[in-house]
């Protein structure tokens, strides 16, 4: 029995890169959704404008979530075929 170490290392690198990409996309989606939150009533207001408008944040979240869904679907396609 022989192990193809080159292929094993390549598979490990690709899986680590895809994992970091999916986690990053989910994190960006959560940051985009956080733009839709409202400041607490009676809370401290420093007068700063929010960095992203709620509609833009929702669009970022939707695009990131769609990208994650496509990556997962492609992975499942590769496993099942």
TrEMBL record:
Cite the entry's keywords alphabetically: Membrane, Transmembrane, Transmembrane helix
- Transmembrane domains' residue ranges: 7-35, 55-80
**Transmembrane helix in keyword set:** yes
> Keyword Transmembrane: yes or no?
yes
What is this protein called in UniProt?
Secreted protein
């Amino acid at each position: 029995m022989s192990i193809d170490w080159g292929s094993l290392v390549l598979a490990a690198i690709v899986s680590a890169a895809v994992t970091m990409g999916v986690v990053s996309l989910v994190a960006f989606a959560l940051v985009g959704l956080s733009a839709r939150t409202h400041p607490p009533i009676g809370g401290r207001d420093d007068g700063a404008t929010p960095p992203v408008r709620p509609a833009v944040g929702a669009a970022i979240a939707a695009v990131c979530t769609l990208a994650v869904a496509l990556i997962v679907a492609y992975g499942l396609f590769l496993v099942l075929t």
